[in-house]
Amino acid sequence: MIPAVSGETLKPIEDNMDQIKNFKPDQKFVTSDKTVVLKKEEADRYSLIIRNDESGKKFLNNPDIVNNLDGKFTPARDTKIIDGVPAKLYANFTKDKLEPVVNALKGETIAFGNFTFILVALFIIALGFSLQQTCAQPFAIFLGDPATGSHRLNLGGSVNSFGTTVGPLIVSLFLFGRVNNDPDDTSVSSVKSLYLIVAAVFALVALIFAISKLPSGKNDERFEKAPKASKSLLVMTGLIIAIIVLGHFTDIKKAPLLIVTIIVVLGTLFYSNQTAINDNNGWGAMKYPQLIYGMIGIFVYVGVEVTIDNNFGALLKTKGYLTENGLNESQISKYISMYWGSLMIGRWTGAIAVFNLSKMGRRIATVIVPFIAFAVVLIANRLKGSDVSDLYGYSICILIAIAAFFYGQQKPVKTLLTLATLATIAMLTGVFTNGLLSVYAFMAGGLCCSIMWPCIFALSVGGLGKYTSQGSAFLIMMILGGAVIPPFQGALGDSPKIGMHNSYLVAAVCFAFLAWLALKLRNVLKAQGLNFDEQIGSH
Question: For the CA atoms of 278, 284, 286, 287, what is the dihedral angle to 10 degrees?
Fold first, then answer.
């Protein structure tokens, strides 16, 4: 990543007129000296945010700009007030005034990074993460009784979610020196020091694993290759790439192509499993039905977890949903943060079973720990400058989740079924209500999603034996759902006949499927003499 962000190309803003005309809503340019932000607000409206200092004065007083605005410059939303003077000023103008306004900004430049190079770097980083998960997840299961593997995965997930909550604060401190600075004040190259630190941390972790005396986690049985399974998954990947290319170079609407992608995934997996049952030679782990159902489960789970967040911002901006005029970017961040914080709340609670507590101690911790995690999320948002008073009522959702955790009794099937059912109810509540109740309902999807991954993962690799590592790799492939289901919901949300609010019925359907999946996996494993819920109940 460091060489990818090291070089920037400066181009005069007036030379980018065609690109600015083709902006999508919320797309923007920030000038290289951070004096001007030019942003598209709606289909036919743009906005200017200009620094209220010496560098911005020439534009604030330029008649070619002022005479083309809808009104006077006013203090920008959430701008800092220094000695009673707003640091930035804001104004709107219509699309037909775009050319004179941009030409009046002559002299300002836009910094462009090497976008392709950055994408390649991100691809390599993502590849590393996928390999890491492929190794780490079965390793965590291997460290104890496979029946309680979901508990250890919860512990790992709880640390992950804590990083998701405090990570933005740490990043902001390294980039800006404070936790609530304006992201428009940074540049592409300013992240180099941050990536150096991240690289050093990963190197340290690698060193710790190299010199540690942890068990190897290897299975000594002879590893059997699965050429037929590999071929099947390669064909599936090729078909998906073909669909993407078709969508890019044709005018076919996005939603039908995404439906075809889902059919390709499901068809490939069921065909492979059925063929493997008839002749398992060369199919490896794909001969196990629990793995196939688990792969579909991971596809749907990751898809619905990501889609709630990905489209939540667009929903909060919708006029009349939470507020009359919708929320702006700075106002929605606390709700998005609480959604991801909800995953941390659930995972911290799910990880309690790993610790050697008495029965009473475990019950007390199950009540207290979620609210400690809730406080961490509120404090993190408060440090970023957000008013969190309207989030206090969310504690009711946490109480419902605590009751669900008690009912689930740390049993993977029962827990998955309970949380998926609650999540379905939450999504339907969110769709058929408005205001804060609807927002709470959609955020509660995070509480329900929180420990679904370990439940699905542990059930899917149960009974695979020497194929556990291979099955884990196949499961990790299915995070593909996070790239298919969110744009599918988004495509429905963009349709005037459906709208973003009603598009959340997609999330309700996904959770209803996961509830059915819990029962299906229980029956499949029982047929093989495995019953993790009973094993955990006897501990």
Answer: 30
